[in-house]
């Protein structure tokens, strides 16, 4: 009967599903450094990758006669039969071959038949596999080492942070010692009794290696002194920090390519992403360490979110992100899912549309604060019957007449861009934004609303980074993406990706003019001089929304485009201790600068091309010219003599003509210093403390009541303004 059973017991062609499951591995852009693994933590390696001292460490621990025995142990089988009859715990076969038969080919059902099948398979394995080394290879890739590590390669990484081919003899001996009782024989178990037993088991393995002449006397003596140092239990979680946002986005992109998560895991795919490890670290450091008082973990409790997205302008590869404080703390992704009002960061799209329509950079547009417009974009007094702004628009800089589009971009002049939008057409601006990658669900509802020019629409950081990249690279839109390669465990290409979108979005001359205009805000006197880099040119734009609820800085050098946002989900004014009300030129610009200073280290310095001066300059507003009779006249307002804050107002000094302001940034509190200009409002509309000091400034009209509290309505009415909420659309990009 036994002979018949032996003859009729085949060796399966493949191992059981659980024994062969592996992990999918996600890599940074270098294709070598791991971001993390999902699935069963097993990496299969050929026996040739396992050093001889590691092989013999396992043999010394588990089966010292492995290379000479027949593959099964009579005493081991006898013990197993007895415990099955007596109802005790299932006993494993004592040889490596029997353990392989049990773990690789059979399930865990405790039956007498299973033990005999184990015996018969172990007897046939060498003939089936061809050699002892092949048996050992399967064994080493199957066995469990604790800490959720299956196989010798995964265990090497988990315990020592290295590949198996880099293990030293003592490290191999410790891993071999762990096999018998994983978890218990972990040097970091914290249980003193278990640690003593681990040390004894380790010395037992060393003794076997020494007796088999795999350790010299000197090595044996040295290794017996202490156990090799292992990594702490746990370590960084696969989805901790920014890794979770990165891996989840990669899985989303793979799914859109027809590679679902189940396939990724079951096939143990190797996914090389576009994320640059150093730039990811720089993004985290910039967001969390640059500005005192800006702690994303604490701010999240106040429903304040921060996001950063950085793309390669030459191909759309996403090099770095900051999706939130940590995926495990808050899984909501502020880069792809989160959106907030764009504010003035939409103005470059307005300019691009105007240039495409044939207008030139030197066109003269409305620079006076408080002005309104009729439906054709002609200037009217704010609040006039035909004023579509319903009360006029405030500017943070007050001009007395027409200004060029270059100056308007530098000073982020609202009246100028509202007029430009009405002259160009809101529908053309929406089309331009969509052409540059902004999703229609973000801008599609504003085709007949001039407020699109002032960023009343929501937008996502990834769209901003990719959209501005078009200006940087000369007119080509690349769909932002995070996957570079999908391969199999043996290095072959699993599937060639076909999702990349590349299209000509703008003519190069238009991008040259937009870039020229966008270099002005980071210069002295602009809205974001703090974003400037010392070693290379920068182009960019701030964005600050009504009541400072959402703030942006989006900018680029020729090779990288980066968007930074900070916004409040509850539509409350952003206030940071020590800074006050946040504007785009403060926190976002400083974070952008800190990140880009690191991201561009070692990168070639490239210059932007000169402006092409496309289009024809228009003259929609006259330039202010002072009348001769007014020269030298005391133009100070009458309240200068009795206002305690008058000393800070330029209109109260030097006859009222000292308003310039130079290149200094606005002061963020009513207590100015030499490094800021107290006469520039730190936000638009200005905060109440600024309006108290600058009593009578037209930029403060209605501010005492507060915009949204009795002041003039936001462009196209408050009802048309989208809520500042980080809400995911039905299918985010």
Automatic annotation (TrEMBL):
GO biological process: cell wall organization; peptidoglycan biosynthetic process; proteolysis; regulation of cell shape
Catalytic activities: Preferential cleavage: (Ac)2-L-Lys-D-Ala-|-D-Ala. Also transpeptidation of peptidyl-alanyl moieties that are N-acyl substituents of D-alanine; [GlcNAc-(1->4)-Mur2Ac(oyl-L-Ala-gamma-D-Glu-L-Lys-D-Ala-D-Ala)](n)-di-trans,octa-cis-undecaprenyl diphosphate + beta-D-GlcNAc-(1->4)-Mur2Ac(oyl-L-Ala-gamma-D-Glu-L-Lys-D-Ala-D-Ala)-di-trans,octa-cis-undecaprenyl diphosphate = [GlcNAc-(1->4)-Mur2Ac(oyl-L-Ala-gamma-D-Glu-L-Lys-D-Ala-D-Ala)](n+1)-di-trans,octa-cis-undecaprenyl diphosphate + di-trans,octa-cis-undecaprenyl diphosphate + H(+)
Composition-biased stretches (Gly residues): 653-664
Region of interest: Disordered: 521-542, 626-733
Record field: compositional bias (Pro residues): 679-688
GO CC term (a single one): outer membrane-bounded periplasmic space
Entry keyword annotation includes NAD: no
Every Penicillin-binding protein transpeptidase domain range: 311-567
Annotated Basic and acidic residues bias: 626-638
Listed GO MF terms: penicillin binding; peptidoglycan glycosyltransferase activity; serine-type D-Ala-D-Ala carboxypeptidase activity
Domain Glycosyl transferase family: start-end pairs: 35-209
Classification via InterPro entries: Beta-lactam/transpept-like, Glyco_trans_51, Glycosyltr_51/Transpeptidase, Lysozyme-like_dom_sf, PBP_transglycosylase, PCN-bd_Tpept
UniProt entry keywords in alphabetical sequence: Carboxypeptidase, Cell shape, Cell wall biogenesis/degradation, Glycosyltransferase, Hydrolase, Multifunctional enzyme, Peptidoglycan synthesis, Protease, Transferase
Similarity remark: In the C-terminal section; belongs to the transpeptidase family. In the N-terminal section; belongs to the glycosyltransferase 51 family.
Protein name: Penicillin-binding protein
């Amino acid at each position: 009967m036994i002979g018949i059973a032996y003859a009729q017991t085949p060796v399966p062609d493949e191992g059981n599903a659980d024994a062969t499951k592996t992990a999918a591995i996600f890599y940074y852009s270098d294709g070598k450094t791991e971001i993390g693994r999902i699935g069963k933590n097993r990496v299969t390696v050929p026996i040739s990758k396992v050093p001889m001292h590691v092989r013999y460490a396992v043999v010394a621990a588990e089966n010292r006669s492995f290379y000479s025995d027949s593959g099964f142990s009579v005493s081991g089988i006898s013990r197993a039969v007895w415990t099955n009859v007596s109802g005790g715990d299932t006993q494993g076969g004592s040889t490596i071959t029997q353990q392989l038969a049990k773990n690789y080919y059979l399930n865990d059902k405790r039956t007498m038949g299973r033990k005999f099948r184990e015996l018969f398979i172990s007897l046939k394995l060498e003939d089936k596999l061809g050699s002892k080394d092949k048996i050992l290879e399967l064994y080493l890739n199957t066995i469990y080492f604790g800490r959720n590590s299956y196989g010798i390669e995964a265990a090497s990484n988990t315990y020592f942070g290295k590949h198996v081919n880099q293990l030293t003899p003592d490290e191999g001996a410790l891993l071999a010692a762990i096999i018998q009782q994983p978890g218990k024989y972990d040097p970091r178990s914290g249980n003193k009794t278990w640690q003593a037993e681990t040390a004894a088991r380790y010395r037992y393995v060393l003794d076997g290696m020494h007796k088999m002449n795999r350790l010299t006397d000197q090595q044996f003596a040295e290794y017996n002194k202490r156990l090799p140092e292992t990594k702490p239990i746990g370590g960084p979680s696969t989805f901790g920090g920014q890794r979770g946002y990165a891996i989840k986005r990669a899985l989303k992109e793979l799914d859109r390519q027809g590679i679902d998560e189940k396939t990724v895991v079951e096939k143990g795919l190797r996914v090389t992403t576009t994320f640059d490890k150093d730039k990811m670290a720089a993004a985290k450091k910039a967001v969390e360490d640059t500005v005192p008082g800006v702690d994303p973990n604490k701010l999240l409790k106040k429903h304040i979110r921060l996001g950063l997205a950085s793309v390669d302008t030459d191909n759309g590869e996403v090099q770095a992100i900051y999706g939130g404080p940590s995926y495990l703390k808050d899984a909501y992704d502020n880069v792809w899912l989160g959106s907030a009002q764009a504010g003035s960061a939409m103005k470059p799209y307005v300019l691009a549309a105007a240039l495409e329509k044939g207008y030139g950079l030197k066109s003269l547009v409305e620079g006076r604060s408080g002005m309104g417009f009729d439906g054709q974009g002609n200037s009217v007094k704010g609040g006039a019957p035909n004023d579509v702004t319903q009360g006029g628009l405030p500017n943070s800089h007050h001009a007395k007449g027409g200004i060029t589009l270059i100056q308007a971009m530098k000073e982020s002049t609202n009246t100028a861009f509202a007029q430009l939008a009405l002259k160009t057409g809101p529908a053309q601006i929406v089309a331009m934004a969509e052409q540059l990658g902004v999703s229609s669900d973000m801008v599609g509802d504003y085709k007949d609303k001039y407020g699109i020019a002032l960023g009343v629409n929501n937008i996502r950081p990834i769209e901003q980074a990719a959209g501005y990249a078009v200006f940087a690279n000369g007119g080509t839109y690349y769909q932002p993406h995070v996957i570079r390669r999908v391969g199999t465990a043996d290095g072959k290409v699993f599937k060639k990706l076909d999702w990349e979108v590349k299209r000509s979005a703008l003519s190069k001359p238009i991008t040259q003019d937009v870039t020229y205009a966008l270099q002005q805000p980071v210069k002295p006197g602009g809205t974001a001089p703090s974003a400037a880099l010392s070693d290379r040119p920068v182009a960019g734009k701030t964005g600050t929304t009504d009541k400072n609820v959402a703030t942006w800085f989006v900018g680029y050098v020729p090779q990288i485009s980066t968007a930074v946002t900070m916004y409040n989900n509850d539509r409350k004014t952003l206030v940071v201790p020590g800074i006050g009300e946040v504007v785009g030129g403060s926190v976002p610009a400083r974070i952008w600068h800190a990140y880009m200073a690191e991201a561009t280290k070692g990168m070639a310095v490239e210059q932007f091309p000169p402006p092409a001066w496309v289009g024809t300059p228009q003259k929609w507003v006259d330039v202010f010219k002072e009348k001769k009779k007014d020269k030298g006249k005391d133009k100070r307002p009458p309240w200068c003599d009795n206002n305690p804050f008058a000393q800070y107002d330029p209109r109260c000094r030097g006859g009222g003509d000292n308003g310039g302001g130079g290149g200094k940034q606005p002061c963020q509190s009513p207590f100015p210093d030499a490094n800021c200009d107290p006469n520039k409002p730190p936000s638009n509309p200005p905060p109440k403390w600024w309006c108290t000091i600058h009593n009578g400034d037209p930029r403060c009209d209605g501010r005492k009541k507060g915009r949204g509290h009795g002041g003039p309505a936001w462009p196209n009415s408050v009802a048309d303004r989208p809520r500042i909420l980080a809400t995911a659309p039905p299918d985010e990009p």
